[in-house]
Amino acid sequence: MIQRSVAAVGAAVALVGLVALVVPSVTTSLPTDDTVVTILAVVLLLGAVREIHRRRQTTFDYTETSDTELTLELPTPGDELDRDLSRVTVTRFNQVQRQHIRDEIRAVAVETIERRERCSEEVAESMLQDGTWTDDPFAASFFTRRPPRITRRKRLRELLSSTPPFKRRAVAAIEAVHRLAEGGDE
Amino acid sequence: MSDEDTGADASRMTADESDVTADGSGIAVDDGVRDEGDTGDSPDGVDRAVEDVTSADAAPDPETAGDAETDTVSGAGVGEETGSATTVREMRLVSTNHWVGIAVITFLTAGLGVVTRSRPLFLAAVVGVGYLAYANATEAPDPSLAVSRSVADPDPEPGDRVRMTVRITNTGDAVLPDLRVVEQVPDALAVVDGPARTATALRPGASVTFAYTVSARRGRFTFEGIEVIARNVSGSRERVLDLATAETTLTCLPPLDATDTVPLQGLTSPYTGRVSTDSSGEGVEFASLREYQHGDAISRIDWNRYARDGALATMEFREERMATVVVLVDLRQEAYLQSDEDGPHVVERSIDATRRLFNSLIASGDRVGLAAVAPTDVWLAPGAGPTHQAEARHLLATHPALSPTPPSGRLYVPGYLRTLLSRLDDDAQVIYVSPVPDVTSAYVARALHVRDHPVTILSPDPTRTDTPGRTLAATERSNRLASLRRIGVRVVDWGSAERLAEALERARRRWSV
Predict the structure, then answer these.
(1) In whole angstroms, what is the distance from residue B345 CA to residue B406 CA?
(2) I need a surface site. Which of A55, A95, B9, B407 has the fewest CB within 10 A?
(3) In this structure, are B21 and B155 located in the same domain?
(4) ipTM > 0.90, yes or no
């Protein structure tokens, strides 16, 4: 509605302009001093600035068509943990998230130790706590939460690496658990 | 839509295609419609088609759309050219923001014109005004389309490439300057050739045809809609529609084949069959010797022994009996997993394995039934014979619960187990086909096992070990299977690169030790 009326006003002004081509006297009553013209120029240029700004603020919004040719993607077990692990960074420290990852790996580790060492859950828990279940110092330190028993040079390398120590230890722990589980037939 | 309907539909469409390609009569009519100057010979047909579409639009019921189609066909045969009417399921009208900011030309030239007191520059602003008008004067058209779809082979074999041809006709009286059409291919089907979409401009009465090829796989698939985007001339506005079309179905039944011998457990029925039991009697495998009793068959007397020491002894054999087996497939949402990017996903492998198990068990004389842990009930009571086998084949191929796409509903597993246990015969053993993705699947196996239904798990492996998360999931599943083995459940772990027969053979060797 507003658009229509603005368009009508515009058409009327255009008509006046056309008439002025033939009868120039129509526009003589309009003010043409410098102040008015300058104000008009500023308004028009501000309008241009506003339009440029508007363009920069808006994005194209074409409807995306679906990928009908592709079949449905299904998850592979473990994708969720991979996503969680990829969110672990040196700079962003999220205690809850890390605890969640630790608990998840711990549960599988306890089960695996119980299965392979043929021991009770308590024994498995204490083995994790002492770090005696694996030879891998990084994997052990993931559950003991103490610095890994490694040479200073390796420790320095761990600190300088772009992988966060938490993530490196988590991955080491997962691999150690997997090795233990695959370690022989029952 | 019933089978007969589909058949009729398909044959009609094929006829349509041959019409168009063979004698060119279809094209002649089409051209008449397209040529707006030459309306003398065909407006009758076009009007009819338009009428039908309007009537279908008025009633949103797809049934009505079907009726409209039959009317057209029986009337003048024009329906064969225009296809069947569509109903709008959903519509949105949106701005694309394509011309946002075009007014900057007007403002800038006019502004600079005023500043520099230059009349030509000021007048150049008119160009910008022209663009503004072009961008905003028109609205996205509301398309009225008729769609006909033809399928080269409605009953393909798995793996066949099936050509689909879609023909879109503008049955409205507005020009569609920018029309994009995307076929709604069922999720489970992969398009292997040609995009299933087209973009064009359509005058009233004109048609566009596009074709693509899908790779068939087990199941029944329904093509029932298209996605349409219609834009105005300038592309500033667009109308997005989800159109329901007449249904076209593709039914793909897997072949009857494959007899991998399935190792079964000891619980059997009293009927003669294939499973060796510990009880002695008639059979082929020698079990024991006992003292002759009056009435024993002469053929079973051990004459060698009689010759040696003159005592009569009767040979006993292992009795071989028939087993009652229910193949239970895990079709919960959680079971829909994939281990490779390409290749069949886990449920596809499960269903394929179920079919093979079923056929081989039936072939060896056992009574076999089917069930699924799924939100929709699937149950085929144990039976034998060709009719039963045909019934199972049909169920495995077309039952909606055995879909290649995950179900939307959830299942209350304890409730389902009660139902299943009430259906199982006392002597039934269960082959549970499940990737064992979570504790619930292990719970199902345990629950059946403790109620004296021997359980054999056939587990297509959904895991990989290429990333830490997946490695952990693989370890977890391996622990789960180990804990099931400990309580006496037999487990066949079926790797993704392995053939079913290999996995079964490996398991058999392990169990016979």
Answers:
(1) 11
(2) A95
(3) yes
(4) no
Q: Of the candidates B81, B114, B136, which is a domain's last residue? A: B136
- B374 close to B407: Cβ distance less than 8 angstroms: yes
Cβ–Cβ below 8 Å for B464 and A37: no
Domain extents in chain A: 79-182
Res A27 pLDDT > 70: yes
Instruction: Kindly determine whether residue B472 and residue A63, on different chains, have CB atoms separated by under 8 Å.
Output: no
pLDDT at B6 over 90: no
Which amino acid would we find at residue B107? F
Choosing among B123, B228, B475, which should be mutated to test the A contact, i.e. which has the most A CBs within 10 A? B475
Query: Is residue B293 within a helix (H) or strand (E), and if so which, with residue range?
Result: none
Backbone angles phi, psi at B352, to 5 degrees: -65, -45
Q: What is the pLDDT of residues B258-316, one digit of tens each?
A: 555 666 665 555 555 556 666 666 666 777 888 888 888 888 888 888 899 888 888 88
The tally of domains found in chain B comes to: 4
A58–B101 CB contact, under 8 Å = yes
A61 vs B95: CB contact, 8 Å cut-off? yes
Q: Is residue B462 part of a domain?
A: yes
> The tokens of B402 are what?
């055995």
Residues of A in contact with B464 (CB under 8 A): 76, 78
pLDDT surpasses 90 at B328: yes
Q: Would you say how long chain B is, in residues? A: 513
Report chain A residues whose CB lies below 8 A from the CB of B130.
Answer: none
Judge whether B269 lies within some domain.
no
Yes or no: say if B318 and B280 are a contact pair by the CB < 8 Å rule.
Answer: yes
Q: List the structure tokens of B378.
A: 């699937």
Given strand B197-202, what is the order of strands in its sheet? B87-95, B237-252, B219-231, B176-183, B197-202
Contact A78 B190 (CB under 8 A): no
Torsional class of B295: left (φ above 0), alpha (ψ -120 to 50), beta (otherwise): left
Looking at the structure, tell me whether residues B111 and B36 fall in a common domain.
no
Q: What is the largest CA-CA distance in chain B?
A: 138
| Domain final position from B112, B136, B160 | B136
Task: Report the residue from B101, B182, B470 with minimal CB separation from A77.
Answer: B470
Chain B residues with CB-CB distance to A75 below 8 A:
337-338
What percentage of residues in chain B have a pLDDT greater than 90? 32
Angstrom CA distances, B100 to A8, B108, B353, stand at: 21, 15, 57
For residue B100, pLDDT over 70 is answered with yes
pTM score, whole prediction: 0.67
Q: Which is more confidently placed, A63 or B200? A: B200
Q: Residue B110 belongs to what domain range?
A: 97-136
Task: Note whether A115 contacts B465, CB cutoff 8 Å.
Answer: no
Structure tokens at A175: 């691999």
Check: CB of residue B475 under 8 Å from CB of residue B510.
no
Statement to judge: residues B28 and B46 lie in one domain: yes
Question: How many Å apart are CA A85 and CA A75, to the nearest integer?
Answer: 17
B175 lies in the same domain as B232: yes
- Return d(Cα B294, Cα B313) in angstroms, integer: 11
Q: Which of B333, B439, B488, B337 shows the shortest CA–CA distance to A108? A: B439
Q: How far apart are CA B362 and CA B382, in angstroms?
A: 10
Burial class (CB in 10 A: 0-12, 13-18, 19+), B343: exposed
Per-residue pLDDT of A103-123, as tens digits, reads 999 999 999 999 888 889 899
